[in-house]
Design brief:
The complex is a heterodimer of chains A (about 270) and B (about 325). Chain A is mainly alpha-helical and about 270 residues long. Chain A has one domain. Chain A has helices spanning about 1-10, 15-35, 50, 55-65, 70-80, 80-90, 90-95, 100-135, 150-170, 170-180, 185-205, 235-260; strands at about 140, 150. Chain A is globular, with a radius of gyration of 20 Å. The chains are: A mainly alpha (about 270), B alpha/beta (about 325).
Chain lengths: ~270, ~325
């Protein structure tokens, strides 16, 4: 079942186009920085100025520009297609009478979306590193906390970043899956999911609601940069893990509550 | 003490009278109104059961409840002898179904669509029969061949005609060894030739031992092959039984062609051969449901009474007419 889900997802042209667009983004960014420089010396949040010093920082620059919108968009598209997409095609009823148990279908859809997120995130990292190595210096890496490390160490940290980014997107996978059990229209589910992500990002900029910040799924998204410190600042990373864990448990419970007893009229 | 022989005989009797699908008091409300009300189906094992009724009469919702897609508000479902939800779910591996039209992935070709459904069904198949093997490409191709889609195997589903889509759905329903086929409007979108082909296919599958439960809103499309019928109207089961019993319960019509149908009517009434409301007169033609079997006497009486007869005959009502009589609306409606 899982193998079938994965081949269905990755054989689909839409998935390939999405991944290619994501993988091209670091090349575009790298080329722009190569041509026009990384901006002034002050350390902005986008790590653009660091990229001209070392190739590995293109990973951080790519991730921080893709994470707010393009990554959630791609993940929303895939995750919210899980059930709503099958329902809109009319294949959902045929899967259930195949028969596939509803719980198993939900779990397979969840795992498939998580694998998509990992492929996207690791792919962007590898793409960033490749573009970086071609366009920028590859010497020792100056960490954000000021120490120098070898380039190989920097590459290892960059690969860890891809795992952390994937973990940060688990909440979006869960929300997309949950919403997709409520509708037979995949576009609606995608927009709903993306809407929640954007709302969360807006709320995390409003200090009056600081109290709920720790609950927002996007609150610790930029914790991945803390891995480029020595010692690594794990605090925000753990908090992100816990936050994402809570969201996925909540969302999957909601999806089960809705889907396991739903009348399938699509 | 029962002898062994008696036990075997009893088993045989039980098997002969067993039901592939049995529902009891099935009821479902959707959007506030009952779409299905107190439907108790009995689909004999080995039959071709025609589940007939106009669109919107609750056929599809009933089928969805039988297959576990929709939970009934009241009533019970038994499928291939299983009544507990978990057992029913397992039994679905012995059931092939087409529900409310085909549903496939437009971006996969016909072959890969069938392969996808073969893959997802395999674990359940193995649970009900540990020795079963995953279907090979050749198996899938032969399923496509059965419905005449082998040449279109590499064409994207998106590019299939409605008839091809319908046939692919039938192929998918028969991918694995089945005991029961549940086909909801399988002839929708097929041309007359295609309808004949599907009917022939169903007949031959039935001869190989499959029970077939087939719904239609166009009665003439399936009535020829059905051994049993259930007639739905406005969410209720209006009639259920053998096709033969259904026909005979309606009675044959006696038809006389004559220049003087008015005189013929008065003679029939005078001799008490027919009830007044069963007599229908068109220009040069009288039809009536006779109370007597002795057509000879009726004809003699008419001739003696001076009615000039051009032709005389018997006509059995089609299910179409029967349906109108039962529901007060045409089976072709919408």
């Amino acid at each position: 079942m899982l193998a079938s889900e994965l081949s269905l997802l990755f054989r689909r042209r839409r998935t390939k186009v999405l991944l290619i667009l994501l993988f091209l983004a670091p090349w575009l960014m790298g080329y722009i920085i190569y041509q026009f420089g990384g901006g002034r010396g002050d350390q902005g949040p986008n790590f653009l100025n660091l990229v001209t010093h070392n190739a590995v920082f293109l990973v951080l620059a790519s991730m921080s520009s893709l994470l707010p919108l393009l990554f959630p968009l791609a993940v929303s598209l895939i995750a919210s297609d899980s059930i709503a997409g099958e329902a809109s095609l009319g294949t959902l009823r045929y899967l259930l009478i195949a028969p596939v148990s509803r719980l198993k279908l939900l779990v397979c859809k969840l795992v498939t979306s998580v694998i998509f997120v990992l492929v996207a995130s690791v792919g962007v990292t590898i793409s960033s590193l490749t573009a970086g190595v071609i366009l920028f210096p590859t010497g020792k890496v100056l960490l954000l906390s000021g120490q120098m490390e070898s380039f190989a160490h920097g590459v290892l940290l960059a690969l860890l970043v891809s795992v952390l980014v994937a973990a940060s997107l688990i909440s979006v996978v869960g929300i997309g899956l949950a919403i997709s059990t409520f509708t037979d229209i995949p576009v609606g589910a995608t927009l709903g999911t993306l809407g929640i992500v954007i709302l969360s990002e807006i709320l995390s900029n409003i200090t009056q609601v600081r109290g709920i910040w720790p609950l927002l799924p996007t609150n610790y998204w930029f914790s991945f940069a803390d891995i480029f410190r020595n010692p690594i600042r794990f605090g925000p990373i753990w908090k992100d893990f816990i936050n994402q864990g809570i969201w996925i448990v909540f969302a999957f419970t909601l999806a089960m509550a809705r889907f396991l007893n739903k009348d399938i009229t699509s | 003490m029962q002898s062994d022989q008696e036990i075997t005989q009893n088993q045989r009797i039980e098997e002969a009278g067993s039901l592939a699908i049995a529902t009891k008091g099935l009821t479902k409300a959707l959007g506030g109104a009952n779409v299905v009300e107190n439907v108790s189906l009995e689909v004999p094992t080995g039959s071709i059961y025609g589940f007939l009724g106009p669109n919107g009469s609750g056929k599809t919702t009933t089928i969805r409840m039988i297959l576990g897609l929709v939970a009934p508000d009241a009533g019970e479902v038994e499928i291939l002898g299983a009544s507990e939800p978990r057992d029913r779910q397992l039994k679905l591996s012995r059931v092939g179904a087409v529900v409310e039209g085909p549903g496939f992935y437009p971006y996969l070709n016909g072959f890969n669509n069938l392969k996808r459904f073969a893959q997802v069904a395999y674990p359940a198949q193995r649970r009900s029969n540990p020795r079963i093997r995953m279907l090979t490409d050749a198996d899938i191709s032969s399923s496509l061949e059965l419905v005449g889609l082998l040449d279109a195997r590499n064409k994207n589903y998106r590019a299939y005609s409605l008839g091809m889509k319908q046939r692919l759905a039938i192929a998918a329903a028969m991918l694995w060894p089945r005991e029961l086929l549940v086909l909801d409007e399988p002839t929708n979108g097929l041309d007359p030739q295609g309808i004949v082909e599907v009917r022939d296919l169903l007949t031959s599958l039935n001869q190989n031992g499959l029970t077939i439960f087939v719904s239609s809103h166009i009665l003439s499309e399936v009535e020829i092959i059905c051994s049993d019928v259930g007639i739905m109207g406005e969410g209720r089961l209006l009639f259920q039984g053998s096709t033969k019993a259904f026909r005979s319960s309606l009675g044959d019509e006696f038809v006389v062609e004559t220049a003087n149908p008015g005189l013929a009517e008065s003679i029939l009434l005078q001799f008490g051969f027919a009830e007044p409301d069963s007599i229908e007169i068109q220009s040069g033609r009288l039809s009536a449901v006779l109370i007597t079997d002795e057509i000879e006497r009726v004809v003699t009486a008419l001739v003696n009474g001076g009615v000039g007869i051009r032709a005389v005959g018997k006509s059995s009502p089609s299910l179409e007419e029967a349906f109108v009589a039962l529901t007060g609306r045409s089976g072709h409606a919408r």
